[in-house]
Amino acid sequence: MKKVFAILFALTLGFGMISCSSDDDAGGPEFTIHGTWKVTKVLINGVEHDVQDYCPYRGTFQFISGGTYVENGYELLEENCVASDPVGGTWQKQGNTYTLTLNGGAVSSVLPNSFSPIIDTNNINEFELSLSAGGIPTRLTFSKQ
Q1: Where are the alpha helices (DSSP H) in the chain?
Q2: Hey, what CATH topology would domain 34-144 get?
Q3: Does residue 48 contact residue 98 with C-beta atoms inside 8 Å?
Q4: In DSSP terms, which residues pair with 72 in a beta bridge?
Q5: pTM above 0.85, yes or no
Q6: How far is residue 124's CA from residue 30's CA, in Å, rounded to a whole number?
Q7: 104 Cβ neighbours under 8 A, 6+ residues apart
Q8: Alpha-carbon distance 17 to 20, whole Å?
Q9: DSSP strand E in 33-72: where?
Q10: CA nearest neighbour of 73 among 100, 47, 54
Q11: R_g of the chain, CA atoms, integer Å
């Protein structure tokens, strides 16, 4: 009978070690800025607005591995929202802050040159950015495409 208990104890201990592997402690997938992002929500002064009502927010923002940045933006031209020429550059991350350096002194229409996104840890495919647009508090939600 003692041998049966010893075998059961050894099996229980073995299964316990398998189920508690170090992979379980990793905390799941982590946020990465790599990829193509699009503004999917706009809050101006705390009020939600339709993204389609704001021409500059219709584009995509690509953070390519290796530090390349491409913004495919839109601009208002004679009351029409039209695609503008892509803006390229580089990006880098230091701590929680991202810095964009755009080619030829170009200006990003949406992302500031340096920003620290507010990342929702429950959804690694979204991040939020708070900024002041013309002195008005604005919050943008970006979703990975």
Answers
A1: 2-19
A2: Lipocalin (2.40.128)
A3: no
A4: 60
A5: no
A6: 7
A7: none
A8: 5
A9: 35-44, 47-49, 60-64, 68-72
A10: 54
A11: 23
Instruction: Note down pLDDT in tens along the chain; length 145 residues.
Output: 444 444 444 444 444 444 454 455 566 678 899 999 999 999 999 999 999 999 999 999 999 999 999 999 999 999 999 999 999 999 999 998 999 999 987 777 788 889 999 987 777 899 999 988 789 999 999 999 9
Gap between the Cα atoms of 25 and 15, Å rounded: 17
Query: Tokens 């031209």 label which residue?
Result: 77
Within 8 A by CB and 6+ apart from 51, the residues are 39, 40, 41, 42, 57, 58
What's the DSSP call for residue 52? G
Please give the full DSSP string across the chain, using - where no structure is assigned. Answer: -HHHHHHHHHHHHHHHHHHT-GGGGG-S------EEEEEEEEEETTEEE-GGG-GGGGSEEEEETTTEEEEE-EEEETTEEEEPPPEEEEEEEETTEEEEEEGGG---SSS-SEE--EE-TT-TTEEEEEEEETTEEEEEEEEE-
